[in-house]
Design goal:
By secondary structure, the chain is α+β, with helices and mostly antiparallel strands. It is built from 5 helices and 6 strands, in the order H-E-H-E-H-H-E-H-E-E-E. The strands form 2 sheets. Strands 4-2-5-6 form a 4-stranded mixed beta sheet, covered by helices on one side. Strands 1-3 form a two-stranded antiparallel ribbon.
């Protein structure tokens, strides 16, 4: 079994907390620890929707095989999977697109993997769209 991944040291470094002046290394607009249902609740409802923002997450991490098997055994929909589990996502970090490559390299230097998973957009009707990594179906969380 794979041990838990800890992000605290990396996020503290990223935010400049080890710097005497607290200057961020890379400006993170948002960091969300992803637990079951967190993409809808923490990411969408708590942060994006109140600001009139949307997100299109079409390149999320693949879920672990055990999640796939449990979903199959229980006959769960893709939406139920993301409401119950993190779907293989440990955290979502929102940075400016020009900072992504720096974030990816920095994560690797801290023994972590980072992956571009989508983009934040403005819109009339805020929503978060996910291309499910369980089946490829589209899931929409709307305001």
């Amino acid at each position: 079994a794979k041990p838990s991944v800890l992000y605290d040291h990396f996020f503290a470094w990223l935010n400049g907390w080890f710097d005497p002046d607290f200057d961020p290394i890379i400006k993170a607009h948002l960091i969300v620890h992803v637990t079951g249902g967190a993409i809808r609740s923490k990411f969408a409802e708590d942060v994006l929707f109140p600001r009139g923002l949307s997100a299109h997450l079409d390149m999320l991490w693949e879920p672990p095989e055990i999640m796939r098997q449990c979903a199959k055994w229980r006959g769960m929909t893709d939406e139920e999977c993301y409401e119950t589990w993190n779907g293989g996502q440990g955290a979502l970090v929102v940075v400016d697109s020009c900072d992504y490559e720096h974030l990816e390299v920095a994560a690797k230097q801290h023994g972590l993997q980072a992956q571009l998973c989508g983009k934040i957009t403005d819109g009339k009707s805020p929503q978060v769209t996910i291309r499910s990594q369980f089946s490829g179906k589209t899931i929409v969380f709307a305001q």
